[in-house]
Write a structure and sequence with these properties.
66 residues; mainly alpha; 47% helix; 0% strand
């Protein structure tokens, strides 16, 4: 499950909404994020599929072998 968790997290932080959330909460502190899409209903299956897709070869999380 760590591989999947790593893959999801690495894709979520690359989405513009992650940056927008940080801007709204931490940088500007206006607590008024402008999400894209603006509602959960606007989230497409393609967006979800991309977030949960397997990581490319060589980019997946691997346990530390120490």
């Amino acid at each position: 499950e760590m591989r999947r968790e790593y893959g999801v997290a690495s894709r979520v932080v690359q989405r513009p909404d992650f940056v927008e959330g940080v801007r709204a909460l931490i940088v500007d502190k206006d607590n008024a994020p402008r999400w894209n899409p603006p509602t959960p209903e606007g989230v497409t299956d393609t967006m979800i599929d991309h977030i949960f897709a397997p990581m490319p070869e060589g980019q997946a999380w691997t346990p530390d072998d120490r």
